[in-house]
Design a protein that fits this description.
CATH class: Alpha Beta
Structural class: alpha/beta
Strand content: 15-25%
CATH architecture: Alpha-Beta Barrel
CATH topology: Aconitase, domain 4
């Protein structure tokens, strides 16, 4: 998992509400199990419209997606955050995220930031006025700054530490490798060994 302490980037606007995981990553692309290579299928059906924001070269290096209300609803597919991260996003800002989508994002180091309606609308206006507007996100301070828009976001300390240090649940488990091996070796000989 990539370490993220600070994000300084332009923003890609997706001013649409109730965007579900079926639109983020359509079902026909869920056959693979690896986490890479999904970016090209992100919003596959919507990208057929030449005016869709992902088709606009001015946003091609944006690390932050600013979305409308209630982002990531629908099925619990992990492929949706995989596709967003593979496209190049490090953070998503919305007024609300579906719980499973939020957790799936945190688990891979994609930062979901919930903001007020006023702040999200303010960001959309700034992008509309100047697509090169920069946003600064500090994971350590749990803060967002974009010109005169400044706000804090909620992120539990455990998730914050994982994102800043770039450690996923497997990394955490491997940190206990010695204890796991010691426990396995202490089991009775007639019990199965943990391997």
């Amino acid at each position: 998992m990539k370490k993220i302490e600070n994000i300084n980037s332009t923003m890609l606007p997706l001013n649409m509400s109730n965007v579900d995981t079926d639109q983020i990553m359509p079902k026909q692309f869920l056959k693979r199990v690896e986490r890479s290579g999904y970016g090209e299928y992100l919003f596959y059906d919507w990208k057929k419209d030449p005016k869709f924001p992902l088709n606009n070269d001015i946003y091609k290096n944006s690390k932050v997606l600013v979305a409308g209300d209630n982002f990531g609803t629908g099925s619990s597919r992990e492929h949706a955050p995989w596709g967003l991260q593979d496209w190049g996003f490090d953070a998503i800002i919305s007024t609300k995220f579906a719980d499973i989508f939020r957790l799936n994002s945190i688990n891979i180091g994609l930062l979901p930031i919930e903001a007020s309606q006023e702040d999200v609308e303010g960001l959309f206006k700034k992008i509309e006025n100047n697509p090169n507007t920069q946003i600064k996100i500090s994971v350590g301070n749990k803060s967002v700054e974009c010109e005169d828009i400044n706000f804090s976001f909620d992120l539990d300390d455990f998730s914050q530490k994982r994102i800043v240090k770039g450690i996923d649940k497997i990394d955490i488990t491997l940190g206990y490798e010695n204890q796991i091996e010691k426990y396995s070796n202490s089991r009775k000989s007639w019990k199965p060994k943990l391997t």
